[in-house]
Design brief:
Strand order of the largest sheet: 3-2-1-4-5
CATH class of the largest domain: Alpha Beta
CATH topology of the largest domain: Rossmann fold
Order of helices and strands: HEHEHEHHEHEHHHEEEEEHE
Structural class: alpha/beta
Number of strands: 11
Helix content: 40-55%
Number of helices: 10
Oligomer: single chain
CATH architecture of the largest domain: 3-Layer(aba) Sandwich
CATH superfamily of the largest domain: HUPs
Strand content: 15-25%
Number of domains: 2
Shape: globular
Radius of gyration: 20 Å
Bound molecules: xanthosine-5'-monophosphate
Length: 321
């Protein structure tokens, strides 16, 4: 019967059967699925798994550390970190178009991942690539061949098209809630197991306008404040996710102390959803919103206006790009 502990031992057995005494690599994105898949495979084959974390510099505050420190501490996984922030920023320089941003990030990710994979393959006969594919992904890619591409969804950690690895997909029979239960059973940190969805291209698609180091820093601070306050208000599980969007090319006039300011707006986009296909804007209590607004404008000098997105999906998507 279905208990997290039974499912873990079944999956571990199946992974051992598939990989035998072979070697595997796994790309970590910072998200739940790749982390749980990696933890399972590590449980099955130990150090014959090497994880690769490409830090593209577009994650939120604390997320790279969560992978590099907390995840490693919890699993003992062998981790290869590539700090590629400069490379991604250079490639994104001057780029404003959302799809162009996604294409560039996807392309750079594959190049960096391939180079790391080659390094690892130079010292071990790596034959397998681990992926955190879930059951809904399997169904979607099988059934939705003609679905229009609304946004080119790039999953960091995804399979480079011409890599010649055999796939290990230990989560392909599981739904998200089951993956979380397995992750908890494996001793992964709560904050990782319960992480809300976050796009592979990261903060790049939450900066409306060119992505720069300074803008990333502003958005990262804003996002951290919002997450802190939503958590403090006990709303993490009530909302699906809350993108924070920096309107980097928009400025508006404000007044603070004795002075006129000319700063940037941030948008709060809290949504409720079952599966991200449709969504409604979340009715966050006004006092929580008020507190977030005060903190954002007090603590982040570049921000002088906070706006709330009250559009459902459709017609708007959850992310702004
Ligand atoms: P949209 O904006 O299309 O988002 O309503 C639906 C859900 O998907 C997430 N999202 C992504 N996830 N790679 C991902 O792994 C991506 O490129 C990507 N783009 C959007 C978004 O956060 C929301 O949960």
């Amino acid at each position: 019967d279905w208990t997290p502990s039974n499912i873990v031992s079944e999956l571990v057995t199946a992974i051992r059967e598939q990989i035998g005494d072979g070697y595997a690599i796994c790309g970590l994105s910072g998200g739940v699925d790749s982390a749980v898949a990696a933890a399972l495979v590590q449980r099955a084959i130990g150090d014959r798994l090497t994880c690769v974390f490409v830090d593209h510099g577009l994650l939120r505050a604390g997320e790279a550390e969560q992978v590099e420190q907390d995840f490693v501490a919890a699993t003992g996984v062998r981790l290869h970190v590539v700090d590629a922030a400069d490379r991604f920023l250079a490639a994104l320089s001057g780029v404003v178009d959302p799809e162009e941003k996604r294409r560039i990030i996807g392309r750079e990710f594959i190049r960096v991942f391939e180079a790391a994979a080659q390094d690892i393959a130079a010292s071990a006969p790596v034959e397998f690539l681990v992926q955190g594919t879930l059951y809904p992904d399997v169904v979607e890619s099988g059934g939705g061949a003609n679905a229009a591409t609304i946004k080119s969804h790039h999953n960091v950690g995804g399979l480079p098209p011409d890599l010649r690895f055999r796939l290990v997909e230990p989560l392909r029979t599981l739904f998200k809630d089951e993956v979380r239960a397995v992750g908890a059973e494996l001793g992964l940190p709560e904050s990782l197991v319960w992480r809300q969805p976050f796009p592979g291209p990261g903060l790049a698609v939450r900066i409306i306008g060119e992505v720069t180091r300074d803008r990333l820093s502003v958005l990262r601070r804003a996002d951290a404040v919002v997450r802190e306050e939503l958590t403090a208000a006990g709303l993490d599980r009530a909302i699906w996710q809350c993108p924070v969007v920096l309107l980097a090319d928009v400025r508006s006039v404000g007044v603070q102390g004795d002075g006129r300011t000319y700063g940037h707006p941030v948008v709060l986009r809290p949504v409720t959803s079952e599966d991200a296909m449709t969504a409604d804007w979340a009715r966050i209590p006004h006092d929580v919103l008020a507190h977030i607004s005060t903190r954002l404008t007090n603590e982040i000098p570049e921000i002088n206006r906070v706006v709330l997105d009250i559009t459902s999906k459709p017609p708007a998507t959850i992310e702004w790009e």
